[in-house]
Amino acid sequence: MIFKRHRRLRGSDALRDLVRETYLQTSDLIYPLFIKEDIEEKQEVTSMPGVYQFPLNLLLIEVEEIVNLGIKSVILFGIPKEKDEIGSQASDVQGIVQRAIRLIKEAYPQLLVIADTCLCEFTSHGHCGLLKSDQVDNDSSLARLAEVAVSQARAGADIIAPSNAMDGFVYVIRQALDEAGFQNIPIMSYAIKFASSFYGPFRDAGESAPAFGNRKTYQMDPANRLEALREARSDEEEGADFLMVKPALAFLDIIRDLRGQTQLPIVAYNVSGEYAMIKAASQQGWIDEKSVVLETLLGIKRAGADLIITYFAKDLVRYLKEEE
Ligand code: PBG
């Protein structure tokens, strides 16, 4: 027995480049945008340095920067002025998301606009579905979510991304989109969505924290791997075009397992808390932000994700340009 010389392939930049297995590219990235009704200036999210809530009148300045960087898709979250029990504003023709979609598509028709389809930013109680007494009711929520999806498609959304975690949402949304003539609008399902504490900063950004209780009756238990794969399988059967795993970092094993189960594109959501931790540590000077971001996103891709939704998208594009 002789020992093996793995270092042979690490001897120079050229050799390391030759055997590199995983690459990040700008076309892998989806950038989240928060649009808030009734503000005049952009507002930085305290727990997410570098991430802002935008008023409609400043949105296109941000989108121009995104397009110029070469980012090809964004996912939109809206914060309405008025919230009510059923999240009426989520499906309003003049709702904040619908207006944002029209504005962006008119100015940048080639940019892919993904609409997050959920109620939590729009309901007075902050839950993702409709309430029956103090329970989030599955089946009445479905009809409501289908209305939201169709109104987003009518406004011009290119992809519908339901994140509400009700059972059957892909099925009813697919049907509703087809009936409304949107057979060609894909569904990017938040298929495997864990009830995670890593969403904390997002709930500041989206002003969508539940007013009571938590989301554990509809989002998944982080302990469960087989259940995650069942969730993904049923969404695929119901007609999903993309499957998402969320969050990403504590669930890389799930991304890997899903890669073995599906031939659909896999999307990983590198969520707000994952962003906040890296930002906070690098602001303290405890880690090097650029190399940690590159390593993190590479890990998500290596686990099996095709696409990454990340608040680091703009930074990553700049890093990739520096590396060229
Ligand atoms: C809405 C939604 C959430 C996120 C994306 N869509 C929050 C939640 O479920 O409470 C979280 C994203 C992030 O943390 O970056 N349903």
TrEMBL record:
Positions contributing to Zn(2+) binding: 118, 120, 128
UniProt cross-references to SUPFAM superfamilies, sorted A to Z: Aldolase (SSF51569)
This protein's name: Delta-aminolevulinic acid dehydratase
GO CC annotation: cytosol
Record keywords, A-Z: Heme biosynthesis, Lyase, Magnesium, Metal-binding, Porphyrin biosynthesis, Zinc
Cofactor(s) the protein requires to work: Zn(2+)
Pfam family, one: ALAD
An annotated GO BP: protoporphyrinogen IX biosynthetic process
Domain of life assignment: Bacteria
Gene3D superfamilies: Aldolase class I
Quaternary structure and partners: Homooctamer.
Statement: the UniProt record of this protein carries the keyword Disulfide bond: no
MF terms in GO: porphobilinogen synthase activity; zinc ion binding
Role according to the record: Catalyzes an early step in the biosynthesis of tetrapyrroles. Binds two molecules of 5-aminolevulinate per subunit, each at a distinct site, and catalyzes their condensation to form porphobilinogen.
